[in-house]
Design brief:
alpha+beta, Aminopeptidase, 5-stranded mixed sheet, 5 strands, globular, binds coenzyme A
């Protein structure tokens, strides 16, 4: 079974080095931000949500360990100030070589138990429309779409 374990400082720094540029690239591709501003805006957002880094109260930034102790991915979640009772998944990845083995579904099941134990009543997240794999994963694990944004080039 997958285990969710808080990252140490070195793991957290390594996580930021990859995740901030990746988030900026996603926002650029989704048409939300322009190329010249994307990286800085991504850095600002991470700083806003995690002012005390991996020790930010209320946030859990963890690595995912499989049955033999390999790190197969990471998951970051936290409660939402404006929506008490809801835990929000800020970031979640299973590394490429470990995909399609059911680890993401297992991690979500672990998270459901953990969040329920902390008193949360609901799990929420944002997923980019083009991310078919993630959308299929969430649908399969009981999530429903609550908002859909659409756009077209003109
Ligand atoms: C989305 C992601 C977390 C799925 O991880 P995973 O461990 O491969 O997922 P699972 O093995 O638990 O798959 C569960 C189900 O999700 C769906 N799914 C997963 N990957 C899929 C893919 N590439 N295409 C279509 N459906 C997919 C399937 O329904 C799958 O069930 P099945 O294998 O029985 O068909 C992984 O692809 C990933 O890390 N992607 C990059 C980061 C990302 O998009 N994170 C989510 C941000 S919101």
């Amino acid at each position: 079974m997958i285990r969710l374990v808080r990252m140490d400082e070195a793991e957290y720094q390594a996580y930021l080095e990859k995740s901030i540029p990746a988030y900026a690239a996603d926002k650029l591709q989704a048409g939300n931000w322009t190329a010249d501003e994307a990286l800085e805006r991504a850095q600002l957002e991470y700083g806003h949500f995690l002012p005390q880094g991996v020790d930010t109260p209320g946030h859990f930034v963890g690595k995912l360990l499989n049955e033999v102790g390999e790190v197969v991915g990471y998951l970051w979640y936290a409660g939402l100030d404006n929506n008490p009772g809801t835990a929000f998944i800020f970031d979640f990845e299973i590394y490429e070589t470990f995909r399609r083995r059911g680890y993401a579904s297992e991690a979500l099941a672990v998270l459901v138990d953990e969040a329920r134990g902390q008193g949360y009543k609901r799990l929420a997240l944002h997923v980019f429309g083009a991310n078919t794999a993630a959308r299929m994963l969430y649908k399969k694990n009981g999530f429903i779409e609550t908002n859909v944004q659409m756009a077209r080039d003109i």
